[in-house]
Amino acid sequence: MLCPAYGPPEVFRLADVPLPTPLSGQVRIRVEASAVNSADWRIRKADPAAVRLAFGFLRPKRPILGISLCGTVEAVGNQVSRFRPGDRVFGSAGLGMGAYAEYICLPETACLAQAPSAATPAEAAVLPFGGMTALHFLRKAGLTAGQHVLIYGASGAVGTAAVQIARDAGAIVTGVCSGANMDLVKSLGATHMIDYTREDVSAAAVQYDIAMIAVDKLSFRSALSLVKPGGHLILSDAGAGDTIRAWGTSLRESRRVLTGMAGEKPEYLDWLRDRFEAGAYRAVIERNYPLAQLAEAHRHAEAGHKKGNIAILIDSAGEQPG
């Protein structure tokens, strides 16, 4: 699926392209599934405008988008020792993207790992984005057992991952989402719930050791008020203005504000796989779409009300959303 120009979901065009050949140090993966996350649709529409500086000013320099993936290693180049043909892998294509296609070549040093043995392609494909983002920030915030952790936007891709990771660490989790999604978030491990459509979370005068704001729908001042002195505020979806405010606040106050891009590490994937296989972590998928309906999948994700993740089934051209 090509993205020849920045714009609405309708810019996508299904096309045949040459089969990529793995170079030295690369593996070719037959992609079984990908996902639509906030990074994917933001790159597609160049929002924020700074996207153009990194991905092409007039049009995407790499017209095949898609970051998260699950697939099977089909061929390897010279000097590859980490994977071999037949290995089922999952992970991230990084900012080079390319996962919205039947095949992709990636360095064996890319953020890839052996996929969970019992996971469906869709489940394995949606684990990396939210899971690695939440792991990165919560570990950076020093997450430990017994802490009180608030997750704002607890029903999205990052939020559902963060609730499970905090619960797994022994934290006391408060989830913030709409009333329609409260049962889902409770099932993931939140012990306290706040319906943001009925209650102003920042007006409750309750503070937390860690507050993770997974959606950019709360003002910086309101978000900071949720954090105890010495605690951490995580803004995983911060814009440029809040990133600057975060830097200044961290210098002036005991409360530290974490923003920026989340790190992607194979060890994060190993953790997600191991916890998934142990039954302690689950992939939350609202809908599966075939690659041919990628525009519709992007439109749904961009609307901002999805539960968990949206998976893209690469080789299921005729499958309907569900």
Describe the structure.
- With 322 residues, the protein is an alpha/beta fold.
- It folds into two domains: 9-128 and 265-313, Medium-chain alcohol dehydrogenases, catalytic domain (Quinone Oxidoreductase, Chain A, domain 1, Alpha-Beta Complex), CATH 3.90.180.10; 130-258, Rossmann fold.
- The chain has nine helices and 13 strands.
- It has helices at 38-45, 51-55, 121-140, 157-168, 182-188, 220-224, 240-252, 266-277, 294-302; strands at residues 26-36, 68-76, 88-92, 103-107, 112-114, 148-152, 172-177, 192-195, 208-213, 227-235, 256-258, 285-290, 309-313.
- The strands form two sheets. Strands 1, 2, 3, 4, 5, 12 and 13 form a seven-stranded mixed sheet that branches. Strands 8-7-6-9-10-11 form a six-stranded parallel sheet.
- Helix 4 links the parallel strand 6 (148-152) and strand 7 (172-177).
- It is globular, with a radius of gyration of 19 Å.
- The model is unreliable at 317-322 (pLDDT under 50).
